[in-house]
Design goal:
InterPro entries: 2TM_dom, Bact_2-comp_sensor_kinase, HATPase_C_sf, HATPase_dom, Sig_transdc_His_kin_internal. One of its GO terms (cellular component) is membrane. Keywords: Kinase, Membrane, Transferase, Transmembrane, Transmembrane helix. It comes from Cupriavidus taiwanensis. There is one protein chain. The chain is of the alpha+beta class. It folds into 2 domains: about 10-105; about 140-300, Histidine kinase-like ATPase, C-terminal domain (Heat Shock Protein 90), CATH 3.30.565.10. It has helices spanning about 10-50, 60-140, 145-165, 170-190, 215-225, 260-275, and strands at about 170, 195-200, 205-210, 230-240, 245-250, 280-285, 290-300. The strands form 2 sheets. Strands 2-4-5-7-6 form a 5-stranded mixed β-sheet, with helices on one face. A hairpin with a 4-residue loop joins β6 (about 280-285) and β7 (about 290-300). α1 (about 10-50) packs antiparallel against α2, α3 packs antiparallel against α4 (about 170-190) and α5 (about 215-225) runs antiparallel to α6 (about 260-275). Mean pLDDT is about 75; it is low at about 1-10 and about 55-60.
Length: about 300
């Protein structure tokens, strides 16, 4: 195992923190050394001067002794400062490492959220145009159906717009967004889609990152149920498991196929969870007969 202070062992951010801490320690040591040398040399010079003086030769000896004593004391103190400096350096390194980790985590969170918003911005126009085209196509043959679809579409847009602007939401808000979305898809797919969104009442007020489950539900519709001629059933269930929450998105569609869209969606989800929950959230994909289940295990915030 590499020695903790080995340069070969550290990643770049840690190496920068180490170099900065070491630079500060060296600056402190050089300052103390220069100050000590300055005082000692001046004391000895004054002592030599007084010993050669005809007015106060008696003062030169004690001053010389004081200068030599100060030099010895300085050397001993320098040794102690070296030891304390190493300890201080270790503390500063730990402090800088912690600060670097916080900065890195904050940057990663911002990057992931920006990437998710960009992805959402790319997806929403297609969804918007397709839905409006469906509404237009229903106006003459099925005006009531067109009206219902438009109402659900407006509700979904309101919820998704609020979610895209928020940095934190709740389980209840995410469930409403999913219901609005699925109600919209239900009008388009008709009897080919049956769905259910079940939420443990204890979880409704719990914080949840906005639109965290939305990509998984979209994947289930797009890659699992829509390609299936007879359609199928989608179940979204959020339940409490002690200090954790388990979100299950299950469909009886075509089964999981690592296509480009599905693979990217799940990869983005994993990346987002890793940053938001510091590695304490997990995604598992299970093949069902028929269909697929995506299980997302999340930690719940501690009770206040």
């Amino acid at each position: 195992m590499p020695f903790p202070h080995s340069r070969l062992w550290r990643p770049a951010p840690e190496q920068r923190a180490y170099e900065e801490a070491r630079h500060r320690v060296r600056a402190l040591r050089f300052f103390y050394l220069h100050a000590m040398v300055y005082v000692v040399v001046n004391a000895m010079l004054i002592g030599f001067h007084l010993m050669g003086s005809s007015h106060r030769p008696w003062a030169g000896g004690p001053l010389m002794g004081w200068g030599i004593g100060l030099a010895v004391h300085g050397i001993m103190t320098w040794g102690r400062v070296g030891l304390l400096g190493r300890r201080w350096e270790e503390r500063k390194i730990a402090e800088y490492m912690a600060q670097e980790q916080v900065r890195t985590l904050s940057t990663e969170k911002q990057l992931v959220e920006a990437r998710m918003k960009l992805l959402q911005a790319q997806i929403e126009p297609h969804f918007l145009f397709n839905t409006l085209a469906n509404v237009v196509s229903l106006i003459e043959p099925a005006p009531q159906k067109a009206t219902m679809m438009l109402e659900h579409f407006i509700a979904y847009l309101r919820a998704s717009l609020a979610a895209s602007r928020a940095t934190q939401g709740t389980v209840a808000q995410e469930a409403k967004l999913l219901r609005d979305y699925l109600a919209l898809i239900r009008i388009r797919m008709g009897e080919r889609l049956h769905y259910s969104v079940e939420v443990d009442p204890e979880l409704e007020s719990m914080p949840l990152a906005p639109m965290l489950l939305q990509p998984v539900v979209e994947n289930a519709i797009k890659h699992g149920l829509e390609p299936k001629i007879e359609g199928g059933r989608l179940l979204v269930r959020l339940e409490r498991r002690g200090a954790r929450m388990l979100a299950t998105i299950e469909d009886d569609g075509m089964g999981f196929r690592p296509s480009a869209g599905a693979g990217v969606g799940l990869s983005n989800l994993r990346e987002r969870l890793a940053v938001l929950y510091d590695g304490d959230a997990h995604v598992r994909i299970e093949e069902r007969s028929p269909g697929t289940a995506v299980l997302i295990d999340l930690p719940l915030p501690p009770a206040s």
